[in-house]
Design a protein that fits this description.
By secondary structure, the chain is α+β, with helices and mostly antiparallel strands. The chain has a domain of 266 residues: 3-Layer(aba) Sandwich (Rossmann fold). Helices cover 20% and strands 34% of the residues. It contains 16 helices and 34 strands. The strands form eight sheets. It has an eight-stranded mixed sheet, with helices on both faces. The protein has a four-stranded antiparallel sheet with strand order 1-2-3-4. A four-stranded antiparallel sheet has the order 8-9-10-11, with no helix packed on it. β1 and β2 form a beta hairpin. The longest helix is centred in the C-terminal third of the chain and has 20 residues. The chain is globular.
Length: 694
């Protein structure tokens, strides 16, 4: 604990020290230590208190999580800690300037199904008045109500009340599973009051800046809908009874409803609400425009709910977050990503603040992640290329910029690689993009590329599969490149960010065209003279682990070895497992196929059922506590390979491991296993492997 306090003091003390910054990386001849890549972020979620007199953040020391509160010039104080094993720290936020809310996350069994759970804890900024049973009163109800259930998620804060800083709006499904009501919750006393009953099928709620619950997102079987409660016009808003549920606004109306399994309806009607303006008349959302997600603004006081397109891109989906003016909560800009990260403002003062940041931190991506209520101080997240992010504080009165902390201090000053964006065409004419990360030494000698020999290569497909690689810091890719291997991360069909047609092209195509895209990307890399065709391994986690296993089945001549972390291996069993959860038809079934109707295709695209066709070495790693892909998927794959007489399989099970490697010990173990396995199979060029072809 002495070390923990010392490290916390050293990082948080930067609040009071005007230390300069240095970004130059000095090359080193020795490999970067493995543990530097495996470390969890040293700091996460830093937030200024509303009065600007301090900040709360999550710090990780030796794999354990600490909620730390620091005042300017004061010694930081640990107000809560987790063991990093059973409990982890999820959400942290202020409730006023004296109270801190913490969401504790853990895994539990519900009726034999492993699930994620969360609980809400409140504590004063000095560590006193801790209350860990905030929602108990809501769960118990009263003598006139039927017995209530224990909600799975208890930290879903919907909004805040401007005039009651220590009271929040919280969504809890204490009455019916998956159908939360909204309550006002006093974070000091635990007293609560119902403010919005569920409308039927509502899963998520959103409040406006005034603390009025104004939007609900729901699913009924496979029909998705968004309900809104438009603000009443000033002359119509005569209610002064603030104890009345829904006072001060009009009645609930449907804003959007469509059949989720119908791509044509989704193309026209899909909507992802982002938030309300300071004037709750206007709602911002992402919605399809010409087949790609765009930023739109919806006028809720117009009965037709017209949409104004504010930001769209001809090639990419627009994804991002609203930017607000701290004092008024007006939306003044959008921090978004298409092919690269951008920030756009439609407010001159906000744009000038951004320009000042960019001048102070040139050639970096900078964005404000937290402000005090007066707008005098900000916390800034700053990223240099693909390096790990850093946090700074900006005092707008004297324009003093101070480095707060690095997310990965062990990597500061060490040479990392810069992923290069690539483009190619699949065998059936689909435009594909991805990122190529070369070893730092190879990157440093880029001018001699014409003389360079092809590199041993790792094909690293992402998970999801409804996800995408972006070229940002990726500890797997950077670790692999640091060991001398080229790394290819291809956004195959089904990845997000490239429009609805591209996403839909991956629907129910696991192990088919999605797999072909990966093979096409690898062949492209070989033809460019970058990858050594005789020394390629395919490595992935979750869906990427499945793609690695399926690659060894479908394209055995391409790969020298296979690594699957938490990868599905039997799609029929995966569908059976997924039926235990809500929205099965919109999730697993829509993406993979139906258990009965697609059973023949599922057999052909299940690596565990074709284990006898795998001839290359296989490394399987899985966490026993995985609540997303059950550990039985890797256990069964290992057993299938054994029965098929496969003599070069290693199966590693992490007793406390989960799907995201949230424990630092597990990250160290996985990277250690990965390095040992790949060194043996990529760097040892045996004659038998040298005869393999494309």
């Amino acid at each position: 604990m002495h070390i923990a306090h010392r490290r916390i003091f050293c990082s948080a003390a930067l609040w009071a020290a005007g230390l300069g910054t240095s970004f130059a990386a000095e090359p080193t001849a020795t490999p970067i230590p493995l543990h530097a890549f495996a470390e969890l972020p040293a700091i996460e979620q830093p937030q200024l208190s509303p009065d600007g007199r301090g900040a709360v953040m999550v710090q990780t020391i030796d794999g354990k999580g600490y909620v730390v509160v620091s005042g300017f010039g004061e010694k930081p104080r640990i107000v809560l800690k987790s063991d990093g094993d059973k409990y982890t720290i999820g959400m942290v936020r202020w409730a006023g300037s004296r109270r801190v809310l913490v969401g504790a996350r853990f895994q539990e069994d519900r009726r034999g199904v492993r699930t994620f759970e969360s609980r809400l804890i409140a504590v004063d900024r000095d560590g006193g008045n801790l209350k860990g049973d905030l929602t108990l009163g809501i769960q118990q109800g009263n003598a006139f109500e039927r017995a209530r259930r224990v909600p799975q998620f208890q930290d879903r804060i919907v909004g805040a009340l401007p005039n009651e800083p220590e009271t929040v709006l919280i969504a809890l499904d204490a009455s019916a599973p998956g159908q939360p009501d909204v309550y006002r919750l006093d974070t000091r006393t635990g007293r609560s009051r119902l403010v919005q009953r569920n409308l039927g099928g509502i899963r998520q709620w959103m409040a406006d800046a005034q603390g009025e619950v104004r939007l609900g997102y729901g699913v009924t079987r496979t029909v998705l809908r968004v309900m809104v409660r438009p603000p009443a016009a000033p002359a119509e808003n005569k209610s002064e009874n603030k104890d009345e549920i829904g006072s001060g606004s009009g009645s609930w109306r449907p804003l959007m409803s469509y059949e989720g399994t119908d791509p044509a309806e989704a193309r026209r009607l899909a909507l992802k609400p982002l938030g309300f303006d300071a004037d709750p008349r206007f709602l911002y959302a992402l919605a399809p425009v010409d087949g790609r997600d765009a930023l739109v603004r919806i006028d809720l006081q117009d009965p037709a709910f017209p949409r104004e397109t504010l930001l769209a891109d001809a090639r990419f989906d627009v994804r991002g977050e609203l930017l607000r003016e701290p004092r008024t909560r007006r939306v003044v800009g959008f921090d978004y990503r298409t092919d690269v990260s951008r920030v756009v403002y439609w407010n001159d003062a906000a744009r000038q603040r951004q320009d000042a940041l960019d001048r102070a931190l040139p050639q970096r991506g900078n964005r404000i992640v937290s402000d005090d209520d007066a707008g005098q101080q900000s916390i800034v997240l700053s990223v240099a290329g693909s390096r790990p992010p850093q946090y700074f504080t900006m005092n707008w009165t004297n324009r003093q910029l101070v480095r707060l902390a690095d997310t990965h201090p062990s990597l500061e000053g060490l040479p990392l690689s810069t992923p290069k964006r690539i483009a190619l065409t699949s065998r059936d004419g689909l435009a594909l993009e991805g990122y190529l990360t070369l070893p730092p030494a190879r990157e440093a000698n880029a001018k001699d590329q014409d003389k360079a020999v092809p590199l041993p290569t790792v094909l690293l497909p992402h998970g999801g599969p409804a996800s995408a690689d972006t070229g940002r810091y990726d500890y797997w890719a950077q670790f692999l490149a640091s060991r001398g291997w080229a790394v290819l991360q291809l956004n195959f069909r089904g990845s997000i960010g490239y429009g609805q047609d591209f996403r839909e092209a991956g629907r129910k195509r696991w192990g088919l065209e999605m797999q072909d895209d990966l093979a096409d990307g690898l062949r492209w890399l070989v033809n460019q003279g970058i990858a050594d065709a005789r020394r390629v391994c395919i490595v992935g986690g979750s869906y990427g682990g499945y793609a690695a296993l399926m690659g060894a089945v479908k394209d055995p001549a391409l790969y020298r070895c296979v690594v699957s972390f938490a990868g599905p291996s039997d799609l029929r069993d995966l569908l059976s497992f997924s039926q235990r959860f809500m929205d099965y038809e919109l999730g697993a079934e829509a993406q993979i196929g139906t258990w009965w109707g697609d059973r023949d295709k599922l057999r052909q695209t299940s690596p565990a059922l074709r284990a006898g066709e795998i001839k290359v070495p296989v490394l399987l790693v899985h966490g026993a506590q995985d609540a997303v892909v059950p550990v039985e998927q890797s256990r069964d794959m290992a057993e299938a390979l054994k029965k098929a007489g496969h003599s070069n399989t290693r199966y590693v099970e992490l007793p406390l491991g989960d799907h995201t490697l949230s424990r630092e010990e597990d990250r160290v173990r996985v990277l250690t296993e990965l390095e040992t396995f790949l060194k043996k199979n990529l760097d040892e060029n045996t004659d038998a492997q040298a005869t393999r072809g494309m």
